[in-house]
Specification:
CATH class: Alpha Beta
Oligomer: single chain
CATH superfamily: Flavodoxin domain
Strand order of the largest sheet: 2-1-3-6-7
Largest sheet: 5 strands, parallel
Number of strands: 7
Radius of gyration: 17 Å
Shape: globular
CATH topology: Rossmann fold
Number of helices: 6
């Protein structure tokens, strides 16, 4: 049995191409006894980190004040989801060449020194090793994997920072062009054929 975490970020809900690709990925990856947890970042319940929340997130749970425990609760939940997952599927669009702001907010909450990474004499090292990640990406015009794609490159780097070194990208890019529908269908087909052995 495997635990799959599906993180979505598009504001377009069921019409989202990245969500559709992510759904196709789940079809290919999920075995009958696997569990899937969905975290929809577009619901506007992911806060941005301020000084108080940053301090609360770094304070050991046993030492937190009641106010700090409340501030740190969302990060604790998001981190627990990551730790419990064997596979993480991201459905993420390219917004203005990068990740949606809410994905960066999520990253700022789950990057916790001593929990998801730690500092060593050779620099920071991730603590979430042994997991596999997939990025279902969509963009209107930005070529995914190009020099102006700061979404998939940044997310792949960030996951590696946390110790998740194996990341696969399945993309439908330039979908506002004339061949957009064909690109979407090709990405959906590729995603549906992915499996855990990929």
């Amino acid at each position: 049995m495997s635990n799959i975490l599906h993180i979505t970020a598009s504001i377009r809900g069921p019409e989202s191409v990245s969500n559709r690709i992510g759904g196709a990925l789940l079809t290919g990856l999920k075995a009958p006894d696997d569990t899937v947890t969905v975290r929809d970042l577009s619901k506007n319940d992911i806060p941005f980190v301020d000084a108080s929340r940053f301090e609360a997130n770094l304070t050991p749970a046993a030492d937190r004040t009641p106010e700090q425990a409340e501030l740190a609760a969302i990060a604790d939940t998001l981190i627990a989801e990551l730790q419990a997952a064997d596979t993480i599927v991201f459905s993420v669009p390219v917004y203005n060449f990068g990740v949606p702001a809410v994905v960066k907010a999520w990253a700022d909450l789950v990057a916790r020194a001593g929990t998801t990474f730690h500092y060593t004499e050779n620099g920071p090292a991730g603590l979430l090793e042994g997991k596999k990640a997939y990025i279902a990406a969509a963009s209107g015009g930005t070529p995914v994997g190009s020099d102006i794609d700061f979404m998939s490159s940044w997310l792949t780097f960030f996951l590696g920072f946390l110790g998740i070194s194996e990341t696969h990208v399945i993309a439908a890019d330039g979908i506002m062009g004339q061949d957009g529908p064909a690109k979407i269908e090709a990405a959906l087909e590729k995603a549906s054929k992915m499996d855990m052995a990929a």
